[in-house]
Amino acid sequence: MAGERNTNTPASQGAAPQLDQFKYEVANEMGLQLGGDRTSRENGSVGGQMTKRMIQFAEEHLKGGSKL
What we know:
Largest sheet: none
Number of strands: 0
Shape: globular
Low-confidence stretches: none
Radius of gyration: 14 Å
Oligomer: single chain
């Protein structure tokens, strides 16, 4: 709802700064600026792209038999 803060926490302690940096890198690659003045669709598409890339990364590493 309006004015509420995100209370999601990363599964790995200390990962928040890297995830935040990753979020802005993905947004930049997509040509988007994140912020409250953007639509939910624009901001949400960045999160969707982040998830897609993280899953792809995990699948590639699991296929190779390496530990993440």
